Amino acid sequence: MAEQLNLFRTIWSSRYALRAVLALKIKGVDYQTVFEDLKNKSASLLHYNPIHKKVPVLLHSGQPICDSLVILEYIDDSMRSGGSLLSSLNTPTTEPWLGFGPSSEMKRLCHHCICGVSSFLKEKCRRKLLAWMSNFSDDPVIKECWPPRDEMVEKYVAVGEAQLSA
């Protein structure tokens, strides 16, 4: 891709920005990262996402694409390398992992588990979901982007404490 591609994101604390990073990495797309401090947002972020003022923002040849779900669909539609991220999903805008997740069979099983079907199906769903999580976290592309565990724990403990004291 010859056009300039920039991704406004945090270092790692936004799971929504991480979705965009993973999609770009899986697709093998070259891009520049613009790190944002969400407590002191840059003029560029506020210019490219004036309504929500959040990351991620994908800037493609000067045109901003905001919202992680829209960015994923844009990457999938406009950047053909690496296969489709979203092709196996029936409703990509409602699927929490958007193309990085389980097969249709597992989604059906997990739906049954949530709806309280048999304990046999619940156990089968749990095993498949754990296997998917293990495969996902062992992927080299995912490992490269994954935040350090100790920093994640520290951040989420601080977030939890702030919410409890509010």
Please, what is the average pLDDT?
Answer: 78
The CATH architecture category of the largest domain equals: 3-Layer(aba) Sandwich
**Share in β-strands:** 5-15%
> What would the CATH topology of the largest domain be?
Glutaredoxin
Largest sheet: 4 strands, mixed
Helix and strand sequence: EHEHEEHHHHH
The total number of structural domains is 2
Helix percentage: 40-55%
Total E-strand runs: 4
**How many H/I helical runs?**
7
Name some characteristics of this structure:
2 domains, 166 residues, 7 helices, 51% helix, Glutaredoxin, four-stranded mixed β-sheet, alpha+beta, 4 strands
What would a concise description of this structure say?
With 166 residues, this protein is of the alpha+beta class.
Write up what this structure looks like.
This protein has two domains: 1-89, Glutaredoxin, CATH 3.40.30; 102-166, no CATH class. The protein is 51% helix and 10% strand. The chain has seven helices and four strands, in the order E-H-E-H-E-E-H-H-H-H-H. It has a four-stranded mixed beta sheet with strand order 2-1-3-4, with helices on one face. Helix 1 links the parallel strand 1 and strand 2. Helix 1 packs parallel to helix 3. It starts with a strand and ends with a helix. It catalyses: RX + glutathione = an S-substituted glutathione + a halide anion + H(+). Its EC number is 2.5.1.18. InterPro entries: Glutathione_S-Trfase_N, Omega/Tau-like, Thioredoxin-like_sf.
